[in-house]
From TrEMBL:
UniProt protein name: G protein-activated inward rectifier potassium channel 4
Residue ranges crossing the lipid bilayer per the database entry: 91-112, 166-189
Similarity section: Belongs to the inward rectifier-type potassium channel (TC 1.A.2.1) family. KCNJ5 subfamily.
Domain Potassium channel inwardly rectifying transmembrane: residue ranges: 55-194
Membrane topology according to the record: Multi-pass membrane protein
Keywords: Ion channel, Ion transport, Membrane, Phosphoprotein, Potassium, Potassium transport, Transmembrane, Transmembrane helix, Transport, Voltage-gated channel
InterPro entries reported for this sequence: Ig_E-set (IPR014756), IRK_C (IPR041647), K_chnl_inward-rec_Kir (IPR016449), K_chnl_inward-rec_Kir3.4 (IPR003277), K_chnl_inward-rec_Kir_cyto (IPR013518), Kir_TM (IPR040445)
Compartments, record wording: Membrane
Site label Role in the control of polyamine-mediated channel gating and in the blocking by intracellular magnesium, positions: 180
Amino acid sequence: MAGDSRIFMNQDMEIGVTPRELKKIPKQARDDIPIATDRTRLLAAEIKKPRQRYMEKSGKCNVHHGNVQETYRYLSDLFTTLVDLKWRFNLLVFTMVYTITWLFFGFIWWLIAYIRGDLDHAEDEDWIPCVDNLSGFVSAFLFSIETETTIGYGHRVITEKCPEGIILLLVQAILGSIVNAFMVGCMFVKISQPKKRAETLMFSNNAVISIRDEKLCLMFRVGDLRNSHIVEASIRAKLIKSKQTKEGEFIPLNQTDINVGFDTGDDRLFLVSPLIISHEINEKSPFWEMSRSQMEKEEFEIVVILEGMVEATGMTCQARSSYMDTEVLWGHRFTPVLTLEKDFYEVDYNSFHSTYETNTPSCCAKELAESFREGRLLSHPSNANLLSVVESEKEKETEEKEDQDEEKANGCQDASKVDGPEPIELNGANGTAGEVKDNLLL
């Protein structure tokens, strides 16, 4: 490798290109590089290494934001920042805000008493202090708590001879109400978030591909475990796949819409029982020219998003999941889970993720559509490989055409024998060549 590097650098210098310094690989990256002497072992190491998911099955996105320079933007939306915090940090902020507020105003009450000299005349009965029975910082802190939380004054109470104390009382009451509204609002929103409602919305572990109404379809199943339903439920899907443009630009996580019924309204669900969501693989589908063998070689991820309003609260709920290319089963269908009982329909969630194999062509949807259009698949309804059917049909057509051409050729020969002129012998009973020529001229 060192020799190769020197060769490349010498070639660059010969053509006038300044060689760039090779960046040092981080230790973790160096440790992750498999050490092997042959290409087979390197390929085996790459195959064993699991690919990183863009989204977990639970709906959590595996995206971390690093090197964020403008962190002040989080403070510009402080309410959302507090709501998004984890519970332990949220409770810590909640406690710290109230404690700091009480300490701040307690210090102001103590400072007023200190400036007025109330602390020096604590035992003077003729002295009228700003706050009765305020003898130090601890009592000022307790008076601040009583004022802001509206517990009610007892032993300590503000007097009428302290205008600065009256103004401070108004300020603390107003700011205390604002703090209460802000912090209690954050806690209420965090408690009432419908994130946990998504825990009872289920997605099948696998997606399947099979034929529906003579069309190749990609399908997955969704269900709701609760009796309270999701109102205005809708479903959408995205294909996450690397892409290279015609100009050579590489897009590592390109997002492509997968139509699950947007144009027909099938994406709006009445999610009372489990439903199978179907994507018809047609000309507009990203899987239109992708056969089974090609799909096994591709690397992609299908992200599905289910949205709706919680019936009990009216808040919007979103559940997410994803399917890797290895989780898409070609030639499978979902096992039925709905059975009719005496007075109701029963859903068997034990079979929610179950699938069974079915005869499905291994070709792409484009070839399948052409075969159905030409009627070549009708005589082979149980054949699992459409390509062999197409080839056999083409061979039959070729053989039939050859037979027809041969029959036409034989027919022409027979006709020439029956209707054609008698053969002319140049030397024989019919005369010489000159006589034959004269006869032809006549």
